[in-house]
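step=encode ok
step=design start
structure_in=
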């Protein structure tokens, strides 16, 4: 078993992820409570999100705070099973023009922005997110954390892109199977581009950047803009 496969499949790693997600939820819970105190309900748009993600919140919390969550993902295929309080919209994260300015109370996104493929598309998403709601909660893995979170491979994301692609042609990493050629490998490499605190702050200049720690290291970053 390779190191990346061990990181991907090992129960300790999965438990650590679960713990970090629940810890990450603390500022989000506070944000939802603040909006509910003011409005009596909370409208959230979760860009790139899933219904299962919201299970990290305490049971009954969303219902108690009259939260309505709109999940936005790329169109195509039937919408997922959602349940009460959730709706689904097919749209590109960089073009959310179907929604009005401040249509929501909170814009939420978890580990999505690094998948947009280019700095230009990240800026487009950031502009859309900042206009849709007064409050923001945008999480992304930290570039300077030593383990690449998608391939679960130490230092992979610090390598030159041609070397990353060459490695994927030679072997599968994490959940990715071995690429048959460089073209396929380059497509996979370009699927994620990690940010650090400076670049995330440049995208969301009016947000506070929170750091999610694993031991002494910053594993993830969260751009938080509180409700006015």
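sequence_out=
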């Amino acid at each position: 078993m390779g190191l990346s496969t061990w990181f991907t499949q090992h129960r300790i790693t999965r438990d650590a992820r679960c713990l970090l997600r629940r810890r990450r939820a603390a500022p989000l819970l506070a944000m939802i409570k603040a909006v509910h105190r003011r409005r009596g309900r909370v409208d959230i748009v979760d860009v790139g999100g899933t219904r299962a993600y919201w299970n990290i919140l305490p049971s009954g919390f969303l219902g108690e705070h009259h939260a309505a969550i709109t999940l936005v993902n790329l169109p195509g295929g039937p919408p997922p099973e959602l349940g009460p309080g959730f709706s689904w919209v097919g749209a590109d994260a960089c073009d959310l023009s179907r929604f009005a300015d401040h249509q929501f109370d909170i814009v939420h996104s978890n580990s999505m922005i690094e998948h947009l493929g280019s700095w230009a598309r990240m800026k487009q998403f950031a502009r859309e997110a900042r206009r849709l709601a007064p409050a923001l909660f945008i999480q992304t893995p930290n570039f300077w954390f030593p383990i690449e979170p998608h391939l679960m491979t130490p230092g992979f994301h610090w390598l030159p892109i041609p070397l990353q692609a060459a490695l994927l042609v030679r072997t599968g990493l994490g959940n990715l199977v071995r690429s048959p050629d460089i073209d396929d490998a380059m497509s996979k490499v370009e699927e994620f581009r990690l940010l650090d605190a400076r670049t995330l702050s440049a995208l969301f200049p009016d947000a506070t950047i929170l750091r999610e720690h694993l031991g002494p290291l910053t594993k993830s970053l969260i751009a938080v803009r509180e409700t006015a």
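step=design ok
step=annotate ok -> The longest strand covers residues 217-225.
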